[in-house]
Amino acid sequence: MKIGYFAFGSNLSSQRLLTRIPRASKDCVATLPGHRLCWHKKGQDRSGKCDIAVTDNPHDIVYGVVYLMTQDDKLELDAYEGAGIGYERRQISVTALHGASIDVFTYYALEIDRVRQPYHWYKEHVLRGALEHEFPAHYIEHIQATTSIDDHDAERRDRELSIYLAGQ
């Protein structure tokens, strides 16, 4: 049985997610109202990672992608995402763009540091995913406007971005 995962950060990029969970498949684009995309999750690499902060304001909306995967895939993704360490896995309900409500799991940050900023390569994953799934222009502009920083670990940076070179 397949279960739904709501990706809102670096896993928006199907190339990034499928590198990690090759059997996953895209179901649909969906929204989560009453939340705001933030970049304040404390990454183990000392940078900021994406989080979805609860605002309870219906005008705040996070766009994401629902991917379908198996229970085993979910456990594998938990390991990548640091479930129980960096993120808490939660069951939520999102709204597909065609209007249906979908029960999915996603991750909420456990440790927040509002001054952390994402690395350029991390922001690139998020931006590529938003463009790939044709999110609204205002949402893409919000991602583009996010301040990011250089990763001085060139090997990590090159490894992270190498997934986009494979198809060229």
What's the layout of helices and strands?
Blueprint: E1 3-7, H1 14-20, E2 25-33, E3 35-42, E4 48-54, E5 61-69, H2 71-81, E6 87-96, E7 101-109, H3 120-132, H4 137-144, H5 154-161
Antiparallel strand pairs: 1-5, 2-5, 2-6, 3-4, 6-7
Helix pairs in contact: 3-4
Output the CATH homologous superfamily: Gamma-glutamyl cyclotransferase-like
Identify the strand order in the major beta sheet.
1-5-2-6-7
**Alpha plus pi helix count:** 5
The fold-level CATH name is: Hypothetical upf0131 protein ytfp
Number of strands: 7
Give me the secondary-structure category. Answer: alpha+beta
Domain count: the total is 1
What does this structure look like?
This protein has a single domain (3-164), classed as Gamma-glutamyl cyclotransferase-like (Hypothetical upf0131 protein ytfp, Roll), CATH 3.10.490.10. It contains five helices and seven strands. It has helices at 14-20, 71-81, 120-132, 137-144, 154-161; strands at 3-7, 25-33, 35-42, 48-54, 61-69, 87-96, 101-109. Strand 6 (87-96) and strand 7 form a beta hairpin. The radius of gyration is 15 Å and the shape is globular. The model has no long low-confidence stretch (mean pLDDT 96).
